Amino acid sequence: MGIFDFLKNIGKKEVAQNKEEKPIIHSMPTIKPDDEIYDCYDEVFKVMIADISGISSNEAKEIQALIKRSDGGFLNMSGYHSIVWEKYFKGREWKWNEYEEWNTIFQKKGKFPVSFPIRKEFSPATSEDALSQLKVVELKTLCKEHSIEIPTKSKKADLVELLKSVKGITNSALVSDKIEEINNKFNYGLYSLLMRTINFRGKNLYDQRRAERLGVKKYKILYVIEEDKELVDMALKMKPNALHPLFPSDMSQRQVVIDFDDM
């Protein structure tokens, strides 16, 4: 056997061995959340949903069941956020009483938190408002639907001008849906804030109880938004043991302080 034949045989053996050797794939371990965190969320949810005027006790139970059934439960807001809005909040009269109370408190103080949603005087959206917020491709679709010839080099403002005087334009699905969206903009934002607040308070309650079991006794307040510090301190004076967020839109956090002298 020549040297080249010898090398060929070695190469064949290596290839055969490589084919037989399958890479070992290690799957990432699945981390399952502690069941207690769901119990804490349920506890907070029941208290906060009862504070919503316009949502019946039966509807509250339905919402809670829907959240529990969604993939990941309350931890995965994308699994239930839109469904709950569409079925229980959109287009109906409801009021978050805690928000209204804080709104009154901040009005009297003459100062609002940086991200606190302030309700402006309601003015129903017009067809022109809706057209102005549609995309160019949507405006062109409307022009075609109403047999309107689009001049070359037309800009968005030109398309809006062409369409705003069309009789019955508000009956178009694109326009009517956009009008509804604009009219619901504040309420949708407030609903989203409500769901986030329930979510964060549920987690905060879980963290608080876990820290207590570990013997943690000292905390400090982390002021994420420095401009809100005065209002956060005011809220804590009103209710020292309140869960965070202390008020709607609050970003402060109750942070554990580890005292090594006590260890």
Explain what you see.
- The longest helix is centred in the C-terminal third of the chain and has 29 residues, at 185-213.
- The N and C termini lie far apart (76 Å).
- The strands form two sheets. This protein has a two-stranded antiparallel ribbon. Strands 3-4 form a two-stranded antiparallel ribbon.
- It has helices at residues 3-20, 35-49, 57-69, 81-89, 97-109, 127-133, 136-145, 156-163, 173-183, 185-213, 229-238, and strands spanning 52-53, 95-96, 219-222, 253-256.
- The chain has a domain at 127-183.
- With 263 residues, it is mostly helical.
- The protein is built from eleven helices and four strands.
Which SSEs are present, and which pair or pack?
Blueprint: H1 3-20, H2 35-49, E1 52-53, H3 57-69, H4 81-89, E2 95-96, H5 97-109, H6 127-133, H7 136-145, H8 156-163, H9 173-183, H10 185-213, E3 219-222, H11 229-238, E4 253-256
Antiparallel strand pairs: 1-2, 3-4
Helix pairs in contact: 2-10, 6-9, 7-8
